[in-house]
Amino acid sequence: MTKATTVFILLFTIIYQLGHSQISSATPTEFSNIEKNIKAIKTKIDMPSGAAIAVVKDDKILYEGYFGCSNIETSTPVDENTNFYIASTTKAFFATASLIAEYNGDLSETTTLSELFPDIPFDKVNADAITVKHLLTHTSGIDNDAFTWAGSYSGQHDAALRHKLVASVYPNEKAGLGEFKYTNLGYNVMSVWFEEFYQKDWRITLKESVLEPLGMKNSSGFMSDLDKNNWTFAQPYSYKYEDGKKQVYL
Questions:
Q1: Domain-embedded: residue 217
Q2: Predicted TM-score (pTM) above 0.90
């Protein structure tokens, strides 16, 4: 178990134990033990990177807490206006957009890979057996390292290349169809379908179908919106780099 994983579990345990026991009749000041313990942990492990916590019940915010720095180099503290990069948590929003597409009759969880991309022969996998549900639940049994690297890290891709990368998927040697294996690939594939079907960037569709209806005005799939809207952004840090005090280059 990594240091980061241990810290997360410890923080979650403290938040659950202290928060859950108080949440039924809590007032904001009754969460002081959460603040005390989180500050103690961050001091103990010497990781000044930022965190924000909210406790919500019945659509009401009972507690908000802000800890550490959004930028360690400038000692900028995290506050209520700090935006965080949520990485793979985006999948929950994208899956919601997929359900909305199904509700609108554009898609079904039983739609097959071959139906999503009728012009692709898929000579390496059985595209008639792989469904949207498989793609969104990490049970598709397919793989493509080049696609996941380009989509998640390098950013070196365009519409034509993404279509070719979908066409070049191959069997996952570690998990077959119906077996769970966490990966970005299913969502990468679905994002290409979204763009080709709706004829616009999948992030725009996500904004229109999920973010805007929820009133999430400070959320976006475009990193460029940070500068465009002058949003405060929590810089990325990792325990792997100089004790967690140097920004991660990706």
A1: no
A2: no
- Residues 193 and 111 sit within 8 Å (Cβ to Cβ): no
Phi and psi dihedrals of 145, rounded to 5? Answer: -60, -35
Q: What is the CATH number of the domain that holds 96?
A: 3.40.710.10
Q: For the CA atoms of the chain, what is the radius of gyration?
A: 21
pLDDT by residue for the chain (250 residues), tens only, comes to 444 433 443 444 444 444 444 444 445 457 888 888 888 988 888 888 889 998 888 989 999 999 999 999 999 999 999 999 998 999 999 999 999 999 999 999 999 999 999 999 999 999 999 999 999 999 999 999 999 999 888 889 999 999 999 999 999 999 999 999 999 999 999 999 999 999 999 999 999 999 999 999 999 999 899 999 999 999 988 877 767 788 887 6
Of 240, 128, 129, nearest in space to 177 by CA: 129
Establish if 216 belongs to a structural domain: no
d(CA 162, CA 147): 7
Which domain does 73 fall in, by range? 3-85+226-244
